[in-house]
Amino acid sequence: MTSPAHHPDVPPADAERPDLTFPDGPKLELDTLIDDLIAHARQVKKAQGRLRGLLRAIETITSDLSLERVLRSIVEAGCELTGSRYGALGVIGSDGRLEQFIHVGIDDETAKRIGPLPKGRGLLGALIAEPRPIRLRSMGGDPRSAGFPPNHPPMESFLGVPILVRGEVFGNLYLTDSSHGEFGQDDEELALALAVAAGTAISNARLYQDAQLQRRWLEASVEIGAQLLSATGEDPLRTVARRAIDIAQADLVTLSLVSPDGEALVVEEAFGEGAADLIGRRFAVSDTHAGHVIETGRPVLLAALPEDDRRQTVNSIAVGPHMIIPLRGTGRSRGVLSLVRRLGQPAFTPRDLDMATGFASHASVALELADSRAAEQKLVLLEDRDRIAMDLHDHVIQELFAIGLSLRATATELQSEDRAARRITQRVEDIDRTIRRIRTSIFALHGNVLPSADGIRQRILEVASEVTPALGFAPHVGFSGVVDAVLSPELTDDVVACVRECLTNVAKHANARSVSVDVSLAGEVLTISVSDDGVGLGDAGRQSGARNLRARAERRGGSFELAPGASGGTMAKWRVTVT
To answer: For residue 161, which of 25, 351, 419, 572 sits 20 to 30 Å off, Cα-Cα?
Structure first.
C-alpha cells in the first residue's frame, strides 16, 4: 500500500503554492455594485435630509398664526429647501393681479433702486393665468419672460408653483437661481409639498385673523353702544370714525351726511391723512359712487377709486382700496362711511366689508337716536313755550287790560284836570302798546320753532333782527289784528320794505336808544307806526327816504306821515287800505 506522502499526484508539503486570483470581469462588477449602493445610500440620506427640512419648514409655517409672518416663512423655507438664492410670494388680488409681493434675497436698498414691486406680468403673469408649476433652466430663453427692470440682479433658473387655499388660488411661490444650476424634479415636488402645507397655514392664519378682527369690531360696537346710552362724552359719530380707521387699518376714514337739500354730502367727521382739511367740506352727490350707495342703500367694495370720484371725494392721498358703506335711516340713507387705503396697499376683502357694514349700523342708530332726542327736546321746548304763552295771555294781558280800564275810568273822572287826564290817557296807550308787544312775543315763542317764511309777522321779525346790529339794540315790535290772514303777497312785500326803510333810517340818522314798530289792522286800514327817541327831524337823508315811503303808500291809495313824536324823537306812520 502506497503512502499518501509519496503519492505521485500529491505535491510535497514543503512545495511552493500558487496565489489565488479572480477573473477581472467579476471584480469590476462587484465594485460597481458597491459604488452604486454607496451612491444610493447618499441619495437616500440626502432625500431624508430634505424630507426632514420639509417637515421642519411645515412645522415652522404652521406654528405661527400671524399671516404676515406665515407668508415670509413660506418664502424662506422654499429657498432653504431648494437651494434658491432668491424667493418671493405673490398674493393675487380680486382683479387677478398681484396685490402683495413678499421677497427674500434682495436687500431693501436694492429693492428701493429697482422701484415698484411687480404687478404680475411675464412669467409671473403666466403662472397667475395658468396655475400649474413652471420650471425653467433659463428664464431668458422662455418667450413668456418680460425681462427685468433696471438695477434688478440677474437671475437664471426659475421654479414657480401655485398656492391653493380651500381650492382657490391664493398666490404663487417663485424661486430663482438654484445653487445646483437648475431646479430638478425633486425641487419641484418639494415646492409643491410646501405649497400644500402653505395653503393650510394661510387658511388657519386667515381664520385667526378674521376672529381677531371680529373681536375688535365687537369691542368697538360695545363701546359705541355704551356711548349711545350716555348723554355726555364723545359724539357717537366721532367714536365710529375713530374706531373704524384703527380696526380696518385704513389711511383715511370719513363720515359724511346728506345735506338737507339732498344735493351734497357734508363731511362731519374724518380721521387720517388730510382729515383736518376735509371736515365741513361739501361734495356733490350725483354721479359718484357715494351717491349710488345712498340711492341703493348697498355698500360697495372698490380695488381703487376711479379718477372722477377721486377728485370729488378726497384729494389728500392717492386713493387705493376703498369701502363705501351707507348709513341707513328710516327712509333714504342718511350718509356714508368711507374707509380708504393708499394706492398700493392690500385690498379690503368681502369679509372686511361685512364686518364694517355691521359696525356702521351703530352710526345709523346714533343718527336716529339724535333725531329722537332733538324731537323730544323740541317737544319739551314747545310745551314750555305753550305754558309761558298761556300764562302771558291768561294772566299778564288780562291784568294789563284791567289796569288800563281802571286808568281810563280815572281819566274820565279827571276831565276837569286836562293835563292829568292826558297823561293818564297816554299811559293807557302805552299799556295797549305793551299788550301788542306781549302778543307778538307769544307768537314768537312758536314762530322761532316752526317758522313761516311767508307770514308778515315772521318777515318783520326777521327784518328787525337784521337791523339790530346797525341800531345797537333790538327794536320793539308789536302786532294788532289778523294781519297774516288778509295781506296779499304784494302788499306784504311793501310792508316789509316800509319797515326796513324806517328802521334803516333810524339806524343811520336818529342816534336813538330805542325804537318801536307797531303793525295794526283796524277794519280795512293797515297802519305801520315806527317811533324812536332820537334827535328828531331835519336830516336830508331821512327826507329822501320819506319820499320813497310816500310813493309806495300813494300807489295803493294810502298816505305816509313823518312827524315829531309826542315825547321827542320821530314818529313815522305808513297807512294803506286793504282790499
So the answer is: 351
End-to-end CA distance of the chain: 182
User: Using an 8 Å Cβ cutoff, are 340 and 252 in contact?
Assistant: yes
Tell me the CA distances in angstroms from 452 to 408, 461, 534, one per residue in order. 37, 11, 33
> CA distances (Å), 172 to each of 136, 191, 200, 480, 549, in order?
16, 11, 14, 86, 86
DSSP annotation of 5 reads G
Which three cell numbers, joined as nine digits, stand for 507? 339806524
Cα distance between residue 6 and residue 172, in whole Å: 89
Cα gap 527→572, rounded to integer Å: 10
In degrees rounded to 5, what are phi and psi of residue 212? -65, -40
Listed in sequence order, the residues at least 6 apart from 101 whose beta carbon sits closer than 8 Å to its beta carbon are: 88, 89, 90, 91, 117, 118
Q: Is 233 exposed, middle or buried (0-12, 13-18, 19+ CB in 10 A)?
A: exposed
- Sort 27 into a burial class: Cβ within 10 Å, 0-12 / 13-18 / 19+: exposed
Do 400 and 439 contact (CB within 8 A), yes or no? Answer: no
| Secondary structure (3-state) at 9 | coil
Do the strands 168-178 and 158-165 form a parallel or antiparallel pair, or are they unpaired?
A: antiparallel
Position 461, amino acid: L
309 contacts 340 by C-beta, under 8 angstroms: no
Sign of the torsion formed by the C-alpha atoms of 533, 534, 536 and 539? negative
φ, ψ (nearest 5 deg) of residue 328: -75, 140
Beta carbons of 173 and 195 less than 8 angstroms apart: yes
Residue 151 DSSP class: T
> pLDDT of 44-93, one tens digit each?
555 555 566 666 767 767 666 777 888 888 888 888 888 889 998 888 77
Closest residue by Cα to residue 257 from 370, 422, 119: 370
Question: What's CA 53's distance to the chain center, in Å?
Answer: 49
- pTM exceeding 0.70: no
Measure the CA–CA gap between 44 and 568, rounded to whole angstroms.
122
Asked if residue 163 lies in contact with residue 202, where contact means CB atoms within 8 angstroms, the answer is yes
Place of cell 431668458: 140
Strands lying side by side in the sheet with 84-92: 98-104, 84-92, 168-178, 158-165, 134-136
- CA-wise closest residue to 86 among 173, 157, 177, 217: 177
Distance CA 497, CA 504 (A): 10
Where are the extended beta strands (E) located within 371-524?
A: 476-480, 515-522
Question: What's the count of helices (H) and strands (E) in the chain, helices before strands?
Answer: 16, 16
Asked if 254 and 269 touch (Cβ cutoff 8 Å), the reply is yes
Q: What is the mean pLDDT of the chain?
A: 76
Torsion of CA 132, 138, 143, 148, to 10 degrees: 100
Q: Give the strand pairing for 158-165 and 300-302.
A: unpaired
Of 578, 576, 538, 577, nearest to 559 by C-alpha is 576
Scanning 298-417, the segments in alpha helix (DSSP H) are 307-313, 350-391, 397-413
pLDDT tens digits for 398-454?
Answer: 666 666 666 766 766 666 556 676 677 777 777 766 766 666 666 655 554 444 445
CB atoms within 10 A of CB 372: 10
